[in-house]
Amino acid sequence: MISTDFGPNEKGRDALLAFSLLFQPWRWRRGKELYNLKRRLKSKFFSLDTHISLFLTGRGALYQYLRSLNLAQDDEVLVQAFTCEAVVLPILDLGFTPVYVDITEQDYSIDVTDLKKKCSPKCKVLILQHTFGITPNDRLKILQFATQQKLHVIEDVAHGFDQDVFKNKRFTGAVLMSFGRSKLFSSVFGGAIATRAERVGKIMKEAERQLPNPSTWFLLQLIFYKILVVVIYGLYHIAIGKMLHFLFKQCNLIVPEVTPREKRGKFDTLMLKTYPNVAAIFMLEQLDRFNDVYQRRKAISTIYYYGLEPKQFSTYQYALNRFPYITKHRDEIQAFARKYNIYLGNWYTQVVAPKELDLMDVGYKSGSCPKAEKLSTCTLNLPTHISVTESEGILQIVNKARQLTL
Ligand SMILES: Cc1ncc(COP(=O)(O)O)c(C=O)c1O
Prior knowledge:
2 domains; alpha/beta; Aspartate Aminotransferase, domain 1; binds pyridoxal-5'-phosphate; 43% helix; single chain
């Protein structure tokens, strides 16, 4: 079985580590790994004078950061359409207004012309998303515009990012990371804010200290996830894996990425908690092999770029979390691939995902971002965490499914 959504980052080593941690509950909440993780993130992706704060989720990190900016109620936050509720719900819950900006087909990121049109004096923050891990083509132009307009910039790299982009102090504002299970690396849940601003760094540190801890049951679910995913993958080919997956979900052993409250358009404080030490231990393990994973994702993205018909845009030079394939036959290709136990992703199926969300609840006006609306009807995601042979198999399946539907 191959899946873009289900535990793409988990390996036998993660399951063994999780199993051993089941018997060391004193390491679950606090421990030296929290400190070590911050140090590793700084040295690997940023600079040593960067402040890193860790939270249970990326959306919790974003919530705390927005709160630290002391904005007035009704201030506006520029955010791209083709995003997810995790970005928009913190904005709304804090009483700010999201202003949706359209994107370009080339990089799934903010369109500068639309940004300039929609930016008003009420806009105080700009969230610049690196969708799928693609560095926005107009990143420098956008950052320059933000400086002119005195906007706080948050570069949202939850999906993934070019690992050299923030080195050598080349960022202002903040960088939002996610360590959620379907991202570039995973501690099942997790998020961080990196900033070089001293004052905000201190406020974020205080926020980290004051938040409540996740419950013991939640921590157990987090540890179990790492074990269950590997068991399910191992047994999928003999149908038992599928049954186990269903069973574990029914028994509430697998925590969903999006809660029912979030699907109803409300921020969920369940996601606003401290980052536990056990998750830091998982992340350090993931970072140990990050270079290999990164190179693999880059290589597979290149294979898709050259092998897909029709040709896609030049996004192949990045280590993409998922490769976006634009096709009007998305549903047919997904259904065809499922016959081979290949589960292709569909980030995103509407301008603010998931599809259960009522767009009126998140302040999106239909027709205001036509390119994002179009792309959300025809973007299929191909996995990049797999082997070369598997990616060639996927290419054959996708190209065959496309021919059958033509
Ligand atoms: C673009 C984007 N930003 C931020 C987040 C928040 O990450 P998390 O799931 O850790 O809350 C997500 C989550 O999927 C996301 O897709």
